[in-house]
Automatic annotation (TrEMBL):
Source domain of life: Bacteria
Region spans: Disordered: 1-30
Name the record gives this protein: SWIM zinc finger family protein
Alphabetic keyword roster: Metal-binding, Zinc, Zinc-finger
Keyword Ribonucleoprotein: no
Species this protein is from: Nannocystis pusilla
Transmembrane segments: none
Coiled-coil segments: none
PROSITE patterns per record: ZF_SWIM
Keyword Zinc-finger carried by entry: yes
Length: 636
């Protein structure tokens, strides 16, 4: 067996192959807190003493707005939507701990709990403290959720703060604990609230009563750090922008709150976009259609985009009463989506990957969005861009291209790479880039390129052309069945991985003929051959998407799903939706059609004498459906 395939076929658990954690040191001169008086409150937030100092101080002009925005930020950083099976081990341990700490003070009991948590489940509380950036125009906060599924950025314009003292620009971490969150809840509109951010802030206690320095030495999971950088960098990709009103988002949240998800039904939100018409939001599986009220869609092409992570939108509920407009930025069906909420001087951006760290299949599809090359050709452009951005703090891509005298395409590529490296933040609300080193030191990028050694082997196999998709079979109501052929020359054999992916990109079934799968199944994660097949399928899907309309003469395998909303039938209570699915498989053409949600669709199959004839019939029907107003749900 070759060296490159030996690692994934090893029987060792993945944890024994590498230590997937990045050490980070944090230090605070005290615990962040709110001191509430009769006429004024002091919100004191301590910054990390292990990083260059930053400083900002002033009175909040709209304290309630800032309170709700900070509360939404805390909801994101503490959220965890991963599935947790019922396990009584922790409950029994809690009962034992409760008996042991019955006679202790609250502080001692809390310390005992944290000690137990550090020994038994360190990943439950090891996330990077919120990142704060002080720039000439704004004060920005960034967080990433525990389950690696939600990114949030809150920006406060300096017009919302009556500043006192000079700003000290830079980026640092802040102590944002549950105690600070509880203190923020006591902010009131009838009391002046002063905000102070800095390594020493403004003393709210005498030297004799000053709390001791808080020091943390955490091992940050590389998967968490990787997800943070990827979601932020994904915002730089071209998106379809849709504007809705705050009440439209409220209607979505209200329905989700009153109705539980169904196991057998879809859990997405379909966004129907027709030029000149208001965007429509369709909630699955109830097929509830919510027409938006912020105006018509201004794009040129109709689209049907399916987005995930709708339950995470509930993290925004407290901020909604202050929101004026909501801009949704869509990358495509099943891909990350971004929500920009504008509330006067405060802008809140929520980015949803749509999946958690446990879903490797969707994560592999997400990886294909961002470049992996690490060639040195663009190093000069990247260095020039970072140097200029470090001087001006914030600038657009055009401004940086003009200042560095570099081609705009090279500058955009360098900025996207800088976001992946953690050096730059993309401000989606303004389409500008901000200088923001995520960590105090350099990030070991080599550890973040791949999630594990098997993923690296999978990418090597795909790069060498050793992975072929032997067959694709799309089954309505089930998903896509894939069979692959992975040739490993050193092993002198072919492996046959098989995958079944549902419409959300989640794995419903997986198996392989390799020794790793036969021994571990999926308990240690997928083998390199399954990952390679998923990568090859994602690349092929992207190639087909790019080729639509320009390379019709080369397509031999393709499936498209079209949908059209129909007016209410006589005697019916609401609209219905018609679905048409076209599947081209070389000389075969299969057409399925019927109402959405039906247990079975009608099917018609054709066999032609040549691939060219089947292809011509396929595109003839495609053109006819688009001319009749059907939306291509597979083009998002």
């Amino acid at each position: 067996m070759s060296e490159e395939t030996k690692e994934p076929e090893s029987s060792k658990p993945e944890e024994q192959l590498s230590d997937p954690r990045t050490p980070v040191r944090l230090g605070y001169a005290g615990a962040s807190q709110l001191e509430a008086g009769e006429s004024a409150s002091k919100l004191q937030i301590f910054a990390n003493t292990e990083r260059p100092p930053v400083r900002a101080e002033g009175a909040l002009k709209q304290p309630l707005l800032v309170r709700e925005a900070l509360s939404a930020l805390y909801e994101v950083v503490s959220s965890d939507f991963r599935y947790v099976p019922k396990d009584r081990t922790a409950y029994l341990a809690y009962q034992r701990l409760k008996k042991q700490t019955a006679g202790q003070s609250a502080w001692q009991a809390q310390q005992a709990y944290f000690d137990w948590l550090a020994r038994n489940d360190p990943s439950a509380w090891v996330v990077l403290d919120p990142v704060v950036t002080v720039h000439p125009d704004k004060l920005l906060f960034e967080v990433f959720s525990k389950d690696e599924g939600a990114y949030a950025q809150m920006a406060i314009d300096w017009s919302a703060i009556e500043r006192s003292g000079e700003l000290q620009h830079g980026t640092t971490n802040i102590d944002f604990s549950k105690a600070l969150f509880d203190g923020v809840q006591r902010v009131r509109s009838y009391r002046e609230t002063k905000l102070t951010i800095g390594t020493d802030a403004v003393s709210v206690a005498s030297d004799a009563t000053r709390p001791p320095v808080i020091e943390k030495s955490i091992q940050l999971p590389d998967s968490w750090l990787r997800g943070f950088l990827q979601v932020q960098a994904a915002a730089t990709l071209p998106t379809t922008a849709v504007r809705i009103a705050a009440i439209d988002l409220y209607n979505v949240l209200r329905h989700l709150r009153l109705n539980a998800d169904k196991k057998q039904g879809g859990r997405g939100v379909r966004v129907e976009l027709v030029p000149g018409e208001p965007p429509r939001l369709v909630l699955e599986p109830w097929e509830l259609v919510l027409a938006t009220s912020a105006g018509p869609f201004t794009g040129r092409q109709p689209a049907l985009v399916r987005i995930w992570g709708r339950r995470r939108l509930g993290l925004l509920r407290r901020l909604l009463p202050f929101v004026e407009t909501v801009d949704i930025h869509l990358l495509g069906s099943g891909l990350p989506s971004f929500y920009v909420l504008r509330a006067g001087p405060v802008t809140f951006t929520l980015g949803l990957s749509g999946f958690t760290s446990a879903n490797w299949s969707q994560a592999v599809g997400f990886d294909q969005l961002l470049p992996r090359d690490r060639n040195e050709e663009s190093a000069a452009v990247l260095s020039a861009v970072l140097k200029k951005l470090g001087e001006v703090w914030v600038a657009s891509a055009d401004e940086l291209a003009k200042a560095t005298k570099k081609p705009i395409a090279d500058v955009r590529a360098a900025l996207q790479k800088a976001c992946q490296h953690g050096q730059v933040m993309y401000d989606l609300s303004e389409d500008r880039y901000r200088y923001r080193p995520l960590l105090g030191g350099a990030i070991d990028l080599g550890r973040l390129v791949y999630r594990n050694p098997r993923e690296k082997v999978a990418h090597d196999l795909v790069a060498k052309g050793a992975v072929k998709i032997a067959s694709e079979n799309r089954i309505y109501g089930v998903g896509l069945e894939l069979t692959g052929k992975v040739t490993v020359t050193a092993d002198r054999r072919d492996y046959r991985p098989q995958l079944t992916l549902d419409d959300d990109g989640r794995v419903r079934g997986a198996e392989c003929t390799c020794a790793f799968y036969r021994k571990h199944k999926l308990k240690e994660g997928p083998c390199a051959h399954l990952i390679a097949l998923r990568i090859a399928q994602a690349q092929e899907e992207e190639r087909r998407r790019q080729a639509r309309g320009s390379e019709r003469g080369t397509i031999t395998l393709e499936t498209r799903t079209y949908a059209r909303r129909l007016p209410p039938a006589p005697g019916a209570t609401g609209e219905s939706e018609e679905i048409v699915q076209l599947s081209l498989d070389r000389q075969r053409l299969r057409i399925r059609w019927g109402p959405r949600g039906a247990a079975k669709l009608r099917v018609q199959s054709f066999v032609f004498g040549s691939v060219a004839e089947a292809r011509a019939a396929f595109f003839e029907r495609v053109d006819d459906l688009e001319a009749r107003g059907f939306l291509d749900g597979s083009a998002g």
